[in-house]
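Example 3.2
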Amino acid sequence: MLKTETVRVFDSYAFTSKRVREVTKQLDPTNIKILSTMSEVGPRNLLEVSRLTGIPFTTVYHRVGQIEAKSESMVKLVPRVSHLGLVRMVVLAAAKPGLESVVTEAWRIPNYWRVLERCEGAFTNYCVQLIPIKFMKEFREYISTMHAMNLIKSYRLIETGDPELMFPDFSNYNSNSGEWTFEWELWLNELTARGATITIRDKCCKPVGVQKMSLTMLAHLELNARMKFTEIAERIGTSPQTVKYHYDRLVSKGVADMFEFFAPPYPMELSVFHEFMLEFADASSMDRFFSLAKKLFFVIQVSKALRRNTLMVSTQILSSQVENLFAFFSEMTNVGLLNSYSGVRINFSGRQVQTISFELYDDVSGWQWDRYENLLKLNKL
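Structure, written as tokens:
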């Protein structure tokens, strides 16, 4: 039976880890307000953050600087790749025993990978690929070849739209006591009693015309969304005015308006990471969950499987709440919101991420795919 549980992060284990202490110390009310506002208005205009929060600009500037010093990059740009002629593909594969590392290397070869992780459950390898629309057939052929070579025993490909990133809702957090309240029963009641406030649908995005310079600039902002235009200009060999022109254009086209903040609700040392596939009974049920997801502070991101009433949901949850999370999805099935759900546990500590593959883009012919070279490299593994 679902119930409300309050969990104290500052337990005896937490104080044995310097990183745990540093992360949790940053979650005071002022920093939470600053980061929450930055997630809404963007990371570059601290004057606007100061105006909206009522916090003096010098305080905002100083605190942001402190967070950046401890996290290296407090916020990263996540480009909406559907505007760039790319399809986001979630790939789950069960490697032949002993070949898990080989499968990881195979994902790298076409060089359109975004995230590589090992996972536990029905599959051993998880990755996100950003595949050019015009080369979807070639990518599927590549995966089929991996299967024919007996590198993988089984696999699942899920085409999704751009992910919707969820900045943690800290309304269930007590910064004085370091406690999080998991309102499982209340959340389920909201799903059954209330309609959706927002919807999630497939978005038909006509790719915008871009230049390789724009993609190169995006790659730098993916590492640090607050990187100065002067620094980017120096790195890519152009002027700050040119960088600003390309940036403003990408923002106006909807490519560069989504950001991932370093604001974990609790430290990695105390967390368990999952990727869930939630298959809903209908679009209305899917919208109800998506509307609630903004409150579920353990949800990192949500992406919609194209042409299906299915959401891919990434979570970071305290280890003590994993059983309740599965019970929550089970109850969603019992009340008719879900047809089915499944998930894999992600080895987040071994996560590998790369920026957009701008080197594979040509200003004349667009994205490139060397079918012969990719298959040749695959056969050499």
